[in-house]
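Task card 7
Instruction: Convert sequence to structure tokens.
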Amino acid sequence: MSLSPTVTSWPEPHSPEESDKLQTPEQDTQQASSGDVPSTHREDTRPGLGTLRRAFSRASRRALGQAPGEDTGLLRRSSHFLRSLRRPRDDGPAAAPGGARGPEGPSGVTDGGSRPSTTGVGPEEPGQEEGKSVADLITERQLLAAFEQLRQLETRLLAQKASGTFEQDPTGFARRAMDVCLLYDGLEAEIRAIVRETLGPGGVDAAALAELARVVRAEEEAHPVPPADGDFLLTPRRWRRHWEDAVTRSAQERVRQAGAGDAAGAAEGASGLARLLAELGGSVRRDLRQVRLQVQPAYSAAGLPAWEAYLRAFHGAVAQRLQELARDARGCEQLYVLLDWTANVYGSPDFLGAPDLTLSTEPLPPLLTPSVWARLESDYTSFLETKITSCFDSILQLEQSRWVAAEAPDVLQGLYHTPLSIDIHMLVAEHVKAAGAISAELEATTLRICARALGLFLPRFEKAFLQSEAVSEPHLGASINACEELRTSLLARFPGTFEELEKPLVAAVCVFQKRLLQGLQYDVQPLFRVLCTKAWLTHDVLQPLMDKVVAFAHHLEHVAPLRAQETLQEAHRYVVREYLAQVLRPRERFRGVDRVTGSQKMGLDAQAIGNTFQGLGSEATWLGQAIPCVADILGETYKDDIGRHLETLIGSYPDIRRDHVLAILALRRLGRRRNQRLLQHAQSLLRAAAKAEGSGAAGGRVLFEEIQVPTSVDLLITCIKCSGSRRGRASGGGPH
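Output:
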């Protein structure tokens, strides 16, 4: 009697897929012991064990995608069918053709799974206990009881193998061992099904989860390490790893289902993407809360780390989903929605909605890889730069529409107001705050983008405003206030970033101040022409000029105090400078009594100018000596004191030049020698003043430098110096 080859090793059937690959060795075909003609046997029509094993393995795999009732029913039917095949076959050999019967002897087995009938009843059926089989227990999800019975069958089978029961029938051992492996696979499939159903609409079955956790621990204790002899029956089934894989697949399915209806809308704009992420976040939040509050307690008794496993699984599934969405994100809004949801929604400590529930109990990898995050930030900043530039264009268009409508600026808190400053503040603050909520690096980048865009906007705004027809004192004051607000508040709120904009903002303020003063100059310039005339000696021609100055100063009351003071001082300097220019370029030259009267008139005008500007709040007190000094030189009766007045004038106004001294002396018409002495004395004073000015002692005050005197003065002085001594003595001897 020939026996089948002895089975020495079997592959480890950890999964149904591996079970498909396992093949049962076929027995050699047995020949009759007597006679030359072999007996003809009836072909066995029942499927072989290998065929059933593959069918059962496929059924175990289908358990991952079918309802539990279908899985367990097939498992139970397959188990019963396997047991029926392993019963002793009573049928004899088939009749030979023509009714002849072959010689008696062991029948050949053609299905590779049955033993010869002469061997009798084989070992005890696996999976069959008193009452319920292992398959029935698995179907009823009595996992621990099923495992205990299966473990007993495994132990008994190994004992039978060790006792030599299967020495004459190694194929029988292989069949029995394969049955055990199939039942292990069925038990594993049921574990996967329980995990898949845990977060489903049916709710959490705490008893089933506790049973699952206990059976995983029991299997680990039963099969701690691979056996030294390589016996596949005792190989660890690694159900903990399969449980974690099932948790991962469950999380992936849950994340994939969340927001599936909004997937098409996500490609249309930021609102669709926001809805998708909101639904995704809500689904993940509900699932994790359910895991923490219901699933984790059920597993904790057996020490299975359910919270950590589900947290890692959902984190990985969400990360994978975001990677897909990041590839399709377009536009500034969609990019920001992704970045914001990642950093501020999912990354929020209260993502789970309860203070006692936190998302991170251990370090998790970044939701988006550093390269993807960097790409999203780069794309976002590129779109943001274009968007901010467009926003500044819109702000300019709004301002232009107000100019066209000739809308007068409002007065808020006593100052002329334009929405320009508020619009820019809101634009910068909104984008910087949004970027800062994502990362400090993105906030710094956004600040630089805003600063650069504002720097380009200022000259455009300045040019458009000055070319419009809305240029007036109120609008100029409002623009000055807006630039001043931007300069002070932006630099204070964002130090280090907007410092480079201080110069452009100050330059814009200076341009608007200059234009404001040009309006005053245009109004009062004709009034200066009547100074130093015969009518001036007898009439108060200065009052209309000062009235216009007072009206101009009323607008400055609604300008930022610092800039209003600067403008008022500049107006003060302009009035004094233009007054002196008219004195040094007189339309008529006074002699005798008229000269003295003119000197007195200049003193009164100087007092009126000083009092008016002092009443308006001008702090340019340094201008108060200019007109009185010239008036004193013009009306001084003691010629020796003229040098003292020159000292006061040159000491107070170091920007005075030789031409100005000559023009002043020409008004007095002194003699040649006295003019020479005074001019030499003035030259030494001017040199000392020049040294002081070079050292910064002058304080940057400019008055006479901007006054141009006619070149005819030199000719006049030359004529005076070259005149006869008698005429020179007459003109310089007595008081005039």
